[in-house]
Amino acid sequence: MLQFNGPARQTHCDGIPRRSFLLAGALGFGGLSMADLFRAEAAAGITGSHRAIINIHLDGGPPQMDMIDMKPQAPREVRGEFDSMATSIPGFRVNELMPRTAKAARELTFLRSLVGAENRHDAFQCQSGFGAKDLQSIGGRPAMGCIINHLTDGETSAPAFVDMMQGRPLVRNSARPGFLGPAYQPFRPDISQMFSRPLEEAMKGELAALGAGHTTALKLHASINASRLQDRDSLLHQLDRVRRQVDQSGMMNAMDRFHQQAAGILTSGELAKALDLENEDPKVVENFIAESTGVNRSSTSEDERSMLKLLIARRLIQAGVRCVSVSLSDFDTHSGNFKRLRHLLPVFDHGLNALIDDLREQNMLDDVLIVAWGEFGRTPKINGNAGRDHWPRVAMGMMAGGGLRHGQVIGATDAWAAEVTSRPVHYQDVMATLYQHLGIDARTTTVMDPTGRPQYLLDRGEPISELT
Length: 468
Description:
Blueprint: E1 8-11, E2 17-20, H1 34-43, E3 52-59, H2 76-79, E4 84-86, E5 93-95, H3 99-103, E6 108-115, H4 124-128, H5 144-152, E7 161-163, H6 168-171, H7 201-210, H8 226-246, H9 251-268, H10 270-275, H11 282-287, H12 308-318, E8 323-329, H13 337-361, E9 368-373, E10 377-378, E11 390-391, E12 395-401, E13 408-410, E14 412-413, E15 420-422, E16 425-426, H14 427-437, E17 446-448, E18 454-456
Parallel strand pairs: 3-8, 3-9, 6-13, 6-16, 7-8
Antiparallel strand pairs: 1-2, 4-5, 6-12, 9-12, 10-11, 14-15, 17-18
């Protein structure tokens, strides 16, 4: 069972203490609301649904030629150790370690020609479509989930965006709000007690430098019931109105939003229930746990229980969340590529397909769009450590659900999976498809940046036409 940490208290410079659930920050900008999102859904013909995104980051950069772009005719120093397996899509083969994916291929779309990778080790590009330096002078671009947080701005007790990424994506703050400011950062529960992902020594230092506010710490003290919390909330609201009149930085507005959201979460209990798998049917829980791979996994790779994060993602969406990000580590296979994948691929294969089956069972598959991808691909040629290095020229992705036309293989590469030869798909094209699923046209929708200029959600992406 997940336990949130105890409530913290913060004393401001004027000596007034107040409950603080998250670090305060700058005020977000823009004028869109939940009503705008509902209108966008209606314009897109979406009614009576709760459309949502599950964004799975394959942390480290998944090797395209060892997963969904097998090259059996290539030299051994390129094709590696694995055999391929036929799928339910005629003529298309995947890694032999992915039998469930092979069987369910008609329910998936395989992207073999992702381009535009920035060659940075985090998940920001998979969260936003942009590079880290874009608009850096004004705070950088916001992650998609943070934009959805902005669109829904306090109109529901459930956060619109929950980030459960661990490892490198957590340390690098990949799901960051950019120029929208900390008020629109994700709800980021500490799931480290549920899912272990040991960090490299350098990452431990990076994470420590971010401070305790990098995860969301919430707990309703046993001596405080909901009525007392609401009374305190009313008092704090009155104090905040006075402070807001003299606060020019927007910090109090951000704190207000955090407090209101936290109070709603604590009093409703829905989010806490979603995060607690003791509330789920044990048989369903068991469905998400992969069989032991029998491989001694890397110290930074996750175990057979790690894909329970996908079950929690489904439960969060049922509780009202619109966007959930999770990760699977560690595809950074500079050494021991094949040994690592003999553990990771069966875990991923089991978890992804368990999620698809579960969403279908819950009658949610058409409402929830899944994407699984990484920050770049891996080198065609195997290095001297039996590994593959970074290769930003080509990356891979997989999509499922969302009521889209699946059973497709989009794009192709050369004989070594080194260069795209047909139908390049940019990271922003995938993001445009995710936005479109939520009824948002990323090419025409804008949010205001701190300088007062409207910024389009994307600057080049087009929804993937083959999917609609």
